[in-house]
Structure formats: structure tokens, C-alpha cells
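subagent[fold] <- orchestrator: predict structure for attached chain, return C-alpha cells only, no commentary.
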Amino acid sequence: MHLYSVKQAVIITLLSIFCLAACSSEQDAGPRPAPEVSIMTVNHQKVTMLMRLNGRASAFMDAEVRPQVSGIINKRLFIEGSYVEEGEELYHIDDAPYAAELANARARLMRAEANYVSAKHLADRYAEAVKIKGVSRQDYDNAVASAEQAKADVASAKAAVQSAEINLGYTKIKSPISGKVGISSVTQGALVTLNQPSPLTTVQQTDPMYLDVTQSSSDYLSIGKKIASGELSRGNGTSILAKIFLEDNSIYPYYGELLLRDITVNPDTGSYTIRVKIPNPRGILLPNMYMKAEIEEGINEKGVIIPQQALLRNQRGEPQVYILNKEGKVEIRKVTTNRVQYGQWIIDNGLEDGDQVIVEGLQKVRPGVTASAKPYEAPPAKPAEKEVVPTIYDEKNDAGKTATAKPWQPIPAENAAPESNGGAKTEQSAQ
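subagent[fold] -> orchestrator:
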């Protein structure tokens, strides 16, 4: 027992020495330095509010080619997918029956004209004879009536000739517009009929193109109220331009121009159509292609934007930010968000000019602690993430060129502007 007590005393002594050494080390190190955070200073500024709407492209003009006479196709005179001019012959129907009908109509016209000449001369002679009572008044009236009837027969025969000429001309099926011609539904030797339901082919004018996008009527009313209250203002431009995004999220090199807003709301979807005209000089766009149009909703003259990573949410999902106050201490500030637009939150309420929002170093601090600050510097954009700026199409200078804009580049998903999906609000816009 005596030996055990000695060992226990030695252990206790050593532990005491270690504890004293540790305490002495901490006292020598002094207090911990304040954590460093990156901050941005809030400054109200003019912010353009954007909405991105979904839609599909359609041809500027779309003509279905159908026969206007019946007959056998003996020639197809175009290459499928090629460009054709207005009035260019596409098909040729066997015209022999229609040529014969025209010759017959012309012969009937000649006969009618000969009958009219004879009847007219007879009426003229009776007109002189009736003055001297050489013929009865009744015979004279009959001769005049016969002459008038012969004149009407001539007019009818001329109309028949004109109709036969038109039908003969219809044997040459021509393109009603200039554009690209599609796949032919018939081949040489096929029988086509007047007023048949299926077209022979389709010609589409695809430069420019239409893009029909949809917006909910509730969004329409909301924007109108914001503009009426002065929260948003309209730009001073004479036309509203739209940035176009293709299916792969790449930016189309030309701006579109907003043409009209439909005057009717679809009762099934609760949305209405916005039509955008897009230049298509290189034929990149095709009808029914899915695209998006980014259109200016309005301008917020006193907007506040912060980097996306600066926004936090509490356990109830409420948006908030960390503020570094004048004493250099961290505090929580609740905010009201509008939407994420190109990687930044647009804040409606909760921040004032001069507030210092913590952007980086949020994991190092908590409310009430003191922190040292340095200015936030946004990371430089990678070359692949640099935004492609579209150009306004100049028909005089750009037409016929093969490369009039910068190459397309995909926009990263995190930098996307808010979308309106045919009336469904996004989570960001609902905040």
C-alpha cells in the first residue's frame, strides 16, 4: 500500500506541472485575433429588372403549296430544302387537257363574235327600215334583242377563255412566297386534285423569325402596379430589345425586337403571348425551335444588389445577411429579396446606403463577435463564362455576311436571370 501511495503522488504532481505549463503558454499567447471577413458597402443604384420567358420560334411567313387544278404531276422542279423565289415554278401538272380546253374556249369565242357581228348588222338595218315602216316595230325589237344576246354570248365566251387560260396557268404550281421549300409529299406521276387537304410541300420565310413567348396575366398586373406606383420605370428607348437564349443556353448573336403583346389571355393557362421578331440572316433558327427571350421588365431606380453567397436563411427559411456595424461587431439583418439575376440577389427592403454586408468569411463569425474587414473583390470571370453581348442586326451592313457576331458561349446556370415559365413564378420571385 505504501508503494502505491507514492506512485499516485508522483502522478498527481506531474499532472499539476503539465496544467501549470499549459496555462502559462496560453497567457503568453494573449487573446485570439479578430476573424477577417470581406465586406461590400451597400449603395442604391439603377437596376434593370429582367424576365426570361419561354417560347417557340415560328416562320415569318408559312405557305402550304396545294394544286388549284387536278391532274398528273409530270415534273418536280425544285430541290427539297433549297431556297426558292416567289413565283418560281415548283411542280408541273400535265397540261394537255387544259390546253385543249383553252383551244375549245377560244373557238367558242370566235363563233360568238361572228354571231354578234351578224346580229348587230341586222339590227342596224332594221333601225333604218323601221323609220320608213319597211319592217314592223316587233321585228326591229327582236333584232335588237338578238344583237344584245349575241353580245352577251361574246362576253361569256371571253370569260370562258380567261378561265381556261387561268386553269392552264395553274398547271405550273409556283411558290407563293420566297423562302426555303420543305419535303415534297408527292413524286412524278402522282395524281393531285383540286382542294386536296394535304399540301404538296411547304415554303417558309425564315428571315426574320417570330418567337412567341408567354407571360402570366398575374405577372402582367404586378408589373403594371409597380410601374404605376413608381417602383419601376420604363426605359426611354423607342423599341424594347430582347436577348435570345437557344436550347443549349447559348446566347443568340442578335437582339430580337418586341413587336406586340397579345390582347387576349388564354383561359386554360392564364397567360398571354408576347411576340418577338428575330433576325435570322444565317439560317440558324428553325421553326418550332425552343428558345427563351430575356425582356426588360422595368428599371428600379433605387435597387440594391448583393453577391449570391452573402445571403443566408434562418431555420424558418427567412432571408438574412450579416452586417458589420460601426463598432466592428457582427449583427443579423433580415431582408426582403426579389430575385436572383446573373449571380446576384436583388434586395427590396432591409438594407440602407452605407451598410457593410459580409460576403466572405461567414463561417468564421457569429452575431455579436468583433471582426476585421477588408473590401470584397469579385473573382475574375473565367473566359468561358464571359457574357456574349448580342448586336442589333443591321440589314444593310449585315445581310449576306457569314460571321457578323461574336461566337456563342454558354452562360453558366448560376448566372442565369430569373425565368417566368408561362405564368409560374420562380422561388426567387416569390420571396
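orchestrator: received. Logging for downstream: The radius of gyration is 42 Å. The longest strand covers residues 45-65.
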